[in-house]
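Hi all, a correction to my earlier message: I attached the wrong file for Glycerol-3-phosphate acyltransferase. Here's the right sequence:
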Amino acid sequence: MPADILPLIYAVVLGYLFGSIPFGLILTRAAGLGDIRQIGSGNIGATNVLRTGNRPIAAATLVLDALKAVVPILIARHFWGEDAARLAALGAFLGHCFPVWLGFKGGKGVAVMIGSLLALHWPVGLIFCAVWLLIALTRKMSSLAALTAAATAPIFAYVLASERLAIVVLGLALLLFFQHRENIARLLKGTEPKIGDGKKAG
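and the right structure:
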């Protein structure tokens, strides 16, 4: 195996290990809220944690899920360079969505994508957040906001950064769309719950 490939492999593994830390599950259990996988949509992300009614725990989950992408990206960039940083982001996303410790059933990746974009190229990350907020406030649908922000992110990455970053962001966006496939089906049917409805979705 070529020596220059090893750092890239290390970056993906590092990202996966950080990304697979199930903060939503850990925090809800620590707060005595039960198993988050038995609530709402059953995923371990901040949106589902919010369905417990505990906003501080949901906010903490959002921040920590973003940070579990930021940390391996910064480590990979420091030791192995920008290509490794981008692969660490991909690894973190895969770890969050498909954690080996939870039978490969994790979250949907919105917070991890935010953290990844902010760490890789912060202007793209801020635009992602702005698009999410705009759609969330106007259409009142968390899933639609995430999907719209993810769909536009590769374009902004290409225009503001580089083709290589755009390719990685496109990969993250496609994974996010895959994780939201049930939401997409409900959006097409017009049955997707709005923010605050409190229905089983996610």
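Sorry for the mix-up. The chain has one domain: 6-189.
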